[in-house]
């Protein structure tokens, strides 16, 4: 436990503190020190891709590639899977927690992190496409950081079958996703108990039974996510639009709060500017997952005409997660009267805000949407796990099935009780994934940048 706690503090604890005006400090964790400069570096190297190629991201998304070929899933399906994992608890309770601790200004810093992170997402997704390989078990393709790390350290023709760093990434991912399974179960059972007074045991049994039917079938996960993700994202988005239109007169005041508190004199004088910046930054990094190496596990599975296309789709995924879904949660909260939400936090705060906007329907809606967000995350991480289980244990159904059963057990345990250690285990897992992924991103980035240049010179000119 001491070793585990030391690793957790190294990854997520503030290892540097920068003094700010007003007596506050800006605490920087190792992951923040890695991911923000990385996002800035790749934004410059891609010549500000999030701004310059945003119309192209939309065009690629609207292409008629909804159905995957016999060789694999489509680019859109890979985007749906990664969106299922990005959009989860963090987009609801996590955003509320960031605003509670850092004020409305935290939303601005979440936006900044998303703009930087989309360039990192492009690089890692394009590399996943460049280094993907055939999947003999599920059909189509597989890949991700474990596979491009393998190629970085073990050249073709070598007799070595495993790279130590690639194996450590795969193991970190499997540990992280087990932790997320437990958190998912707890989130769902808690929300249903709050909204419908259903005992956790009953909701958990139903949840695990439904999940088992889906994940233990060969290729049911992608088909189910194809249905769930667009519906849940659209419902949440349009409900928020309704709330925004209903409270349109408050919008100038809300945006004034966001921008003034992001740089505001009151925060500087009150010693809270560091909390504003870092709560927004940390929540943005955790929510959009850019740089952690998770989304490339889905990106590699896409059967798509050019590697850079999948990179653009995954870059758009960061926008969908943070600029759209996280902002929806922020608006629901910020458009509610401050005196009503003062002193509340987590699901209580969000459900109180929704009760103000939509009455009891709002409370029920949040419970259902949280169920969809969390359940789709569980399905998505088991898709991610496929390629990493195969890298560690080889191509066999026994190891694939055993990991799914382990995840289902963690889902069941989480539904009955919350264990902080398991939550922290997930945080350590994603932190280690990020460290190992970064080892490959910088030396291999020129290949992704070359793919981007080729796409702009050939594919984009062809489409003009």
Folded structure, characterized:
With 464 residues, the protein is mainly α. It has 21 helices and four strands. The protein has helices spanning 2-12, 30-45, 49-52, 54-62, 75-86, 89-102, 105-130, 145-153, 164-196, 200-215, 220-246, 251-263, 265-269, 273-288, 296-299, 307-334, 338-341, 346-358, 360-393, 397-416, 420-463; strands spanning 14-19, 25-29, 133-134, 141-142. Strand 3 and strand 4 form a beta hairpin. Helix 9 runs parallel beside helix 20.
Determine the strand fraction and express it as a percent band: under 5%
* Count of individual beta strands: 4
The mean pLDDT is 82
End-to-end distance, in Å? 58 Å
Pfam family, one: Na_Ala_symp
Membrane topology: Multi-pass membrane protein
Protein name: Alanine:cation symporter family protein
Keywords: Cell membrane, Membrane, Symport, Transmembrane, Transmembrane helix, Transport
Short synopsis of the structure:
The chain crosses the membrane at residues 20-44, 164-184, 196-215, 227-245, 315-336, 361-384, 405-422, 428-452. It holds the Pfam family Na_Ala_symp. The chain is mostly helical and 464 residues long.
Keywords:
amino acid:sodium symporter activity, 4 strands, 21 helices, mainly alpha, symport, 3% strand, 464 residues, two-stranded antiparallel ribbon, 77% helix, globular, transmembrane helix, two-stranded antiparallel sheet
């Amino acid at each position: 436990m001491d070793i585990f706690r030391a690793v957790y503090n190294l990854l997520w604890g503030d290892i540097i503190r920068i003094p700010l005006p007003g007596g506050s400090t800006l605490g920087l964790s190792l992951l923040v020190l890695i991911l923000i400069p990385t996002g800035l570096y790749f934004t410059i190297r891609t010549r500000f891709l999030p701004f310059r190629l945003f119309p192209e991201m939309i065009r690629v998304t609207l292409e008629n590639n909804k159905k995957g070929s016999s060789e694999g899933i489509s680019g859109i399906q890979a985007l749906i899977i990664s969106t299922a994992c990005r959009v989860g608890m963090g987009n609801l309770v996590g955003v509320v927690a960031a605003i509670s601790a850092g004020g409305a200004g935290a939303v601005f810093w979440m936006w900044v992190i998303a703009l930087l992170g989309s360039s990192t997402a492009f690089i890692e997704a394009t590399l996943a496409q460049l280094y993907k390989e055939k999947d003999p078990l599920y059909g189509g393709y597989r890949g991700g950081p474990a596979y491009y790390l393998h190629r970085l350290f073990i050249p073709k023709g070598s007799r070595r079958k495993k790279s130590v760093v690639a194996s450590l990434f795969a193991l970190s991912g499997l540990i992280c996703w087990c932790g997320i399974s437990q958190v998912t179960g707890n989130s769902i059972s808690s929300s249903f108990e709050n909204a419908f007074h259903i005992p956790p045991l009953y909701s958990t049994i139903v949840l695990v039974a439904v999940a088992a039917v889906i994940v233990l079938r060969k290729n049911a996960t992608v088909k189910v996510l194809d249905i769930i993700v667009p519906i849940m994202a659209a419902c949440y988005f349009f409900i928020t639009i309704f709330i925004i239109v209903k409270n349109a007169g408050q919008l100038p005041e809300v945006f004034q709060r966001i921008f003034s508190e992001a740089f505001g004199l009151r925060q500087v004088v009150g010693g809270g500017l560091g909390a504003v910046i870092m709560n927004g930054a940390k929540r943005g990094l955790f929510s959009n997952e850019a740089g952690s190496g998770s989304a490339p596990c889905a990106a590699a599975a896409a059967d798509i005409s050019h590697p850079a296309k999948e990179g653009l789709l995954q870059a758009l995924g960061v926008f969908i997660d943070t600029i759209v879904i996280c902002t929806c949660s922020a608006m629901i909260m910020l458009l509610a009267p401050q005196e009503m939400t003062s002193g509340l936090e987590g699901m209580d705060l969000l459900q109180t805000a929704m009760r103000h906007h939509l009455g009891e329907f709002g409370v029920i809606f949040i419970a259902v949407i949280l169920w969809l967000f969390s359940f789709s995350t569980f399905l998505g991480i088991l898709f991610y796990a496929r390629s990493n289980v195969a890298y560690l244990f080889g191509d066999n159904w026994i190891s694939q099935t055993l990991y799914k059963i382990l995840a289902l057990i963690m889902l069941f345990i989480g539904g009955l009780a919350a264990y902080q250690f398991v939550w922290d285990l997930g945080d350590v897992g994603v932190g280690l994934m990020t460290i190992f992924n970064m080892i490959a991103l910088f030396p291999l980035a020129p290949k992704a940048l070359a793919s981007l240049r080729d796409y702009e010179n050939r594919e984009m000119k062809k489409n003009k």
